Amino acid sequence: MSQLFRRKRYNENDHSTGLNRVLGVWDIVFFGLAAIIGAGSFSSLGEAIFRGGPGVISLYIICGIACGFTALSYAEFASRIPTAGSAYTYAYASFGELIAWIIGWALIMEYSFGNIYVAFSWSDYFTSFVERLGFHIPDFLSTSYPEAKKAFESGSENSELVNAWNSAPVIGGLKFIVDIPALIINAFITGLVYIGVKESKNFNNLLVILKLAVIFLIIAVGVAYVNADNWTPTNAQGVQSFMPNGFSGVMAAVSGVFFAYIGFDALSVLSEETKNPQKNLPRGMIISLVLSTVIYMALTLILTGIVHYKKFEGIGDPLAFIFSPDNANLPWMEFVVSITAIVAITTVLLVFQMGQPRIWYAMSRDGLMPKKFSEIHPKYKTPSFATIVTGIAVGLPILFTDKTFILDFTSIGTIFAFVLVNGGILLMPQKEKLKGRFHLPYVNSKFIFPVLFLGGLAGFYFWQPEFFHNILEWSDPAEGEFRLSVTVYILINFVLVYLSFTKNLNLIPLLGLSSCLYLLTGMTHNNWFWFLLWFAIGLIIYFCYGVKHSKLEQDLNGDLK
């Protein structure tokens, strides 16, 4: 049993692996912007606005704050452990082998399943773009089988999905419905990552510059079309409100909003390919996160100011939608945004597809996965086998899953990983301060955290008294699950208040832990079911293979002999 929680010790020689160190601080920033500003702004932003109204901007702020504290924790870990592996490596150093496996398994879910959603989004924009050019891709070749079937059976108003089901040819008794563009872009990105990180960074930087330029153009042009009345729409009770669907409506959008932020943690897997990772990696992560948060807030204000929030139902291309004939009526902007969306989402695919093989690479190097996954290509100096498997792991589910499931599944796994990263920092002893390295500032939480939490709880009570009056009514079909989650969250934070007062914990990772736990309150029981199922499968693999082949176990046996 002690082996399961034995920690791995890292030293300065652990990261000499043959990977090319070619990334500087602004390369990291550009990779961060590539991952964060992409599918979240060009796709899931529309659904988030429909659920939460203009008030969804508050959720972007909450997610930004949670990710900000988490980024500092990631940066602290990166300054201590400059090796590939992201939260997996950090968990190995702080929690031990079993928790490290769980985190690694969660990250495999994040990057692989996250890229499935991004590939679907890329396909939607690409199909729409070529349609404007006069080329039509058959509906049954540009969507997934489950989405088309679900739309047909539910009588959806989405005519393209219904038509995909009705027009699809039948082969072997099954309708042939395949998202061909999603499969093609996955294959292309896999090949690019296989060739090497240097070529990938040059391609990525070019695309990010183009993407940011157009986003600033959207904001600059969109300001002139904003109608301030759209920021306080009338709710069902006839009252003008910034949150027309209430605070629970805002929290219902947590998966879509948080998905927009998950890319920044992928940067930590690039430690072994970063020049001076102890300094450049933390700076790059924090800069990219701050810039992305500001951009998301500006985009949310522009979109909700130009178009009434209810019109975003089912809209997969919100940034192009606001310039359509029924809204701002700027065809040239609609065309430019469509092209840029394809570019933006391509960069997200690139970063995620780079991150996944390096998780497998790190786990394989520790003996928890077969040695083949840590194989480095002799010419390209990349984890070649792991890259190919990643392409397959992303490509196959494209055939039988849909965006909604993938969005929720990815978000809960990532938030769970963030919780453990912040918790890991709280368990790590203070390190010696060395010049040129990032150091997480220590702020004693003894009195500050209790005041912040209890004060915030009191403020929320006076802001939403009705919610607290009904907080124990968990059987309510509309808000019961959310009320139960908030109750559990409050109880956990009372425990954190006690620990902060008695243990003098560092305030920064403690706030990161608390804010990430809050984001989990927006997850439904279905999200938890599928996450726990994935977690169970991972444990089976670990106990059948990882325990026996663990490098720590082999080293221990060698020492005993």
TrEMBL record:
Keywords: Membrane, Transmembrane, Transmembrane helix, Transport. The chain crosses the membrane at residues 21-45, 57-75, 176-195, 207-226, 246-264, 285-309, 335-361, 382-400, 406-428, 440-462, 482-499, 506-522, 528-547. The keyword Transmembrane applies. Residues 507-550 form the Cationic amino acid transporter C-terminal domain. It is found in: Membrane. It is a multi-pass membrane protein. Gene3D superfamilies: Amino acid/polyamine transporter I. One of its GO terms (molecular function) is amino acid transmembrane transporter activity. It comes from the Bacteria. Its main location: membrane. GO terms for cellular component: membrane. The keyword Electron transport does not apply. This is Putrescine importer PuuP.
